Amino acid sequence: MNFGNLFKIALKALSNNKLRSFLTMLGIIIGVAAVITMVAIGQGTKRSIQKQISEMGSNMIMIHPGGDRRGGVRLEASAMQTLKTKDFSDIAEQCKYVQAVSPNVSSSGQFIYGSENYPASITGVNRDYLTIRQLKVAEGEMFSDIDIKGSAKVCVVGKTIVDNLFPGGEEPVGKVIRFNKIPFRIVGVLEAKGYNSMGQDQDEIVLAPYTTVMKRILAQTYLQSIFCSALTEGMTDKAVEEISQILRTNHKLKADDDDDFTVRSQEELSSMLNSTTDMLTLLLACIAGISLVVGGIGIMNIMYVSVTERTKEIGLRMSVGARGVDILSQFLIEAILISVTGGIIGVLIGVTASACVNAFAHWPVFIQPWSVVLSFAVCTVTGIFFGWYPAKKAASLDPIEALRYE
After folding, report:
1. DSSP letters along 321-353, please?
2. Which of 8, 27, 52, 55 is disulfide-compatible with 298, CB 3.0–4.6 A?
């Protein structure tokens, strides 16, 4: 019997039991759709994180005070005073692999303009901070080095601050706002960047000279952190080594002493986040893949029922010359048709579900072509694997016993 006739017989057998065939496919459909959707969500999150890190500066390096023990108690980094302005200036002057360096100090409080007020933080930096964080001034200008030396009460603000303090559309540049009780003159407005993938508003930002924040607001002589950017992303590791050596020398640490600072790069952060999202994506895909196995078991169960129901038919065909391989092929084609059709429907539902998640839940999604191909291939293999044994049982029936079967 040729393949065309076998295909027609298998198709007719499935069409005679449409509802049962569809319910059998359902496990495959759900499994394929779930795998595609889960992988799309995981990969979308990964790409969103990578984009966010890239926008922040893929070659950015962050230096924070490290933990220290005093009286047997480990202090928090925020309580440490190990970073000084000398550390910042030495890094700027001595590091060959660093192109920009900025001190960082911040304080939270209330910004006030007229009858409007808004709670936010003011961050003390220098001009290099714009380069490091890839920020641009849309209106006005960045404060100058003279402003930094003179601890001038000037600031550059983000769009969220402007929208909340100047709801009437008033021009913000040149206006004086108050941070708690200290007046600051706005000299520039930053370009809007919107929300990042973590839901943080990147426009809720106020930058001022770090000397101003240290002297007039915090009344401190140490830095809370230092931000740098390497010449290129590939030179990040060399820049980190240089920075660590300079800080250890400045802090007079012995060879066996632990660092009293922490240096982290965006590359390191990116690698860690990527490995985490990849692991979560794999976990989600494995959980969704269980549905494919359940669907395969469903195919095997239905094929067993089909073999039992059609025992007489099998005996009749074998008695008129059908070979065992023909019977085997017929039932195997039925199992493959169920799994492949279910796979196609599952792919369509998975792609649609991914688009709906992005449209209605606003989650980042990215459909990986390999997830579609892999899930479809797995469902086909599942159909062959779980359909083989029932088909083999049908092919091994004795024609006489099959004809006598009631």
Report:
1. T--HHHHHHHHHHHHHHHHHHHHHHHHHHHHHH
2. 27
